[in-house]
Design brief:
five-stranded mixed β-sheet, single chain, alpha+beta, 25% strand
């Protein structure tokens, strides 16, 4: 997918270092090795996708999503599990472009809904998702193992 200034494509193992740099801008200690492992697993999976936004020589953003069959309703749930824009590249339409690309992927799969979670302290992210049409509908409970 190409917009006037953004090229969105599937992420690949050779993007691992730049994807890790994008994720680190959110404060996650993601390593390029870990990213490469996930990308190699997702490459063969029809239910998992990683998209990147790229310019000529630099990766400017990344989004990952996973399609999950749900028991209680028809269609799949698509869950966005990561969205990050490279530090210094915020507010340039990169996040919007990546979200729209994931939404298009979800629609093409026939997904019933799409969800994203965001840490409570990321108020700017909350405003972004709300502006993209996402609303709060439920709470997520986590037990770390």
């Amino acid at each position: 997918m190409v917009t006037s200034t953004h090229l969105v494509r599937r992420g690949c193992v050779r993007d691992a270092t730049e994807i890790a740099a994008c994720m680190q801008s959110l404060g996650y200690g993601t390593t390029s090795e870990n990213v490469a492992i996930h990308l190699s697993h997702f490459k063969e999976s029809p239910r998992d996708i990683v998209l990147v936004c790229a310019e000529i020589s630099v990766l400017t953003g990344v989004v990952s999503a996973h399609a999950i069959p749900v028991f209680h309703q028809p269609g799949e749930l698509v869950r966005i599990t990561a969205l990050s824009v490279r530090q210094g590249r915020e507010r340039q339409g990169i996040g919007r472009c990546l979200i729209r690309a994931i939404e298009n992927w979800a629609v093409a799969r026939g997904a019933a809904r799409i969800e994203v979670t965001s840490n409570d302290h990321r108020e700017g992210a909350h405003r972004f998702y709300q502006a993209m049409g996402y609303g709060m509908e439920s709470r997520r409970f986590i037990k770390r193992l």
